[in-house]
Predict the 3D structure of the following.
Amino acid sequence: MERVAVGIDLGTSNSCVAAVRDGEVEVLPNAYGEATTASVVHFHLDGTVTVGNAARAAMIHDPLHTVASSKRLIGRYSFSEEVRKARAICSYPIVEGPNHSVRVRIRDELFSLPEIAAMILREMKAVAESRLGCEVDQAVITVPAFFNDNQRQATADAGRIAGLEVLRLLNEPTAAALAYGYGRGLRQKVAVYDLGGGTFDISVLEIGDDVFEVLATCGDTFLGGDDFDDRLIDLLAEEFLEREGENLRRDPFALEKLKVAAESAKKALSVEEQTEIRIPDVSRDAEGRPRSIERTLTQGEFSGLVMDLIQRTFKVCDEALAQAGLVPRDLDGVILVGGPTRLPVIRQAVADYFQQRPHTEIDPDRVVAMGAALHAASLAAPGFEGEAYLLDVTPLSLKIGVAGGLAETVIERNTPVPIEQSRFFTTFRDGQETARIRVYQGESRRAEENELLGEFEFSGFRQARRGEVRIEVGFRIDSDGMVEVTARDPDTGASTGTKITLSSGLSEEELEEILRASPAERVRREEGPVAGGSGPTPSDTPDGPGAAPSAPKPPPLPAVDEPDRSAFGPPGAELAPDGDPTP
Amino acid sequence: MTGAPQRAGELRAVASMLDQLDYYELLELERGASGEAVRRAYHRASRRFHPDAWRQAPDELRVASARVAARLSEAYAVLRDPGRRAAYDRQLERDPRALRLGIGQAGAAARSASAERSGRTGRGRRFFEAARRDLRRGDRAAALRNLQMALAFEPGNPHFEGALAALREGREVPELERD
């Protein structure tokens, strides 16, 4: 049977799958003929799940069992800022799992974020299989360039759970640049302005024919189209509170209605000067009479609501350009990625900032999946014609926690990958026997302001007075942006190493257990459009081989030894820096 | 192109010499090369050694391309940055050998063979280097003392032992004279 490797853009709001067929890259539409599928998972009472626009419709009538924007949670610790924020916005219950990981509780079951993402990936795999008429088991999956190692690891786990061999985790802006410049023999410097549902990335690339070199990448994983919607939701909720004295944010059903209305108003403003917001029956008064929201929203009003968010993206752009050593007029082109970049207010602001009109001929919802598909084709096929070489960078500095609550950099951000680099540390106490090595990603000198990737203990080194022992800590970052770390005593030769597999994701045992139970199998393919579905009627849409009917429920997740919470306290004073980084 | 024999030969050769090449040699650049030339050289080398191009090749070649690619990134990260490049150039003037042996420290596991020759441990290596310098100056007594120190930190290293025996017997000492 023919095998095709696909590219999957796993987005916060929508996902898209593409493949190269007969040398042409094409987006594979779902059963409704839509190029993108909502990244929403609805859990039915019988244990099956639906993914896509039908699931998005369920956000209104079944908000507690409908999981949206899960990408905001993947690879995060339960105590992180982003998770706190998501708890305030999301109606479904977000709880703490083993090792401070995040779980979603649906009825009596707990689901990890990689499992939820796997359900979406499974759906995209089925979409591809049904369109291509063959098995799909290899994929390039895209991630925001600014994703840290935990988030990348969790996304890779999701791919495995979905039954995909993940050929590469590709940064979204890099994928977009590839789709833009592939096979065109360009010599250009371009910026990719990627504002997705939940994240913002800016990458500056130099395209030299078949080489795509990322000069710098910066981002904000707390900023996306969802935040634009939130501003609008806030406005509507505030106005309602003033008029009716009721806080709609407290009512999950009303909140979901607000969300849907806000998102469609935003979309309408991408093409219209103004739009009517109508939410009939948003709640009931004391006598049970329906109350509604009706209001006109103009582009000008909307711009006022979100302008500070847009300006925030340019702060990030400043940083990326400075890192690349460029100014806006050095750029030969600006590529827009992500649904929100259709908004005229954003296009205008981007044109002003970069002093040039961005490319509008590229579809911002599809370009990432198309780039991923091109890369998948070249990775899967030996001797693929027209190979392109992607030279990417690590978006965040890698650091080691040292005495005094500080973090010392071993690899600077925007260093090209793959790379290996090491630095020497020393002991902090006389006769010290073990060192706790804490690995961070981020730009702060203060350890706790960076993202903790993981930690391990190192022992077996020479015991001596403080400062006399040398411990060489080495990092390896592979082409997926994933990190491996080793510690070594060059004098005794003792060493230890680990792929940082993270407390915030799934342990290897949990992953094995999930792979056995394969919850993604529960994804149920819809027969056709349902009420609220927006697409045309399907014509030629046999269910793909991935469309298994409801499988037996997986056993509850195994308990995992809970490490002492103190492991996440302030860093132990156990290592001290020893000289400059090598070389 | 993957696995084309001449390409494979080139990859093997570069991978095996990796610890003997400084960044300029690795990228095939003149010392004074411009920033633009550095970038072009990095692109050129990436086309030949990028691990993606060797994805379908046998393990030996895939490992080799990963090592070379990591070193290319390292070299490029230094040479494209004027500050780091100047520091590297100064180091290269002072002590080219030590620098070559010291680069890519994290690849410790990968360079066992050359490490065996020049020392597995920091101190062993340092005294071994000192002995090498002594011998170059013609000071065999000092070289002997330093070699003994190197052996104290790294007992049983066959290259150190061989060099020590040769020194004691007044023979040529290939271990210390070879580049």
In short: Chain A touches chain B through 38 residues (CB under 8 Å). The two ends of chain A are 50 Å apart (CA to CA).
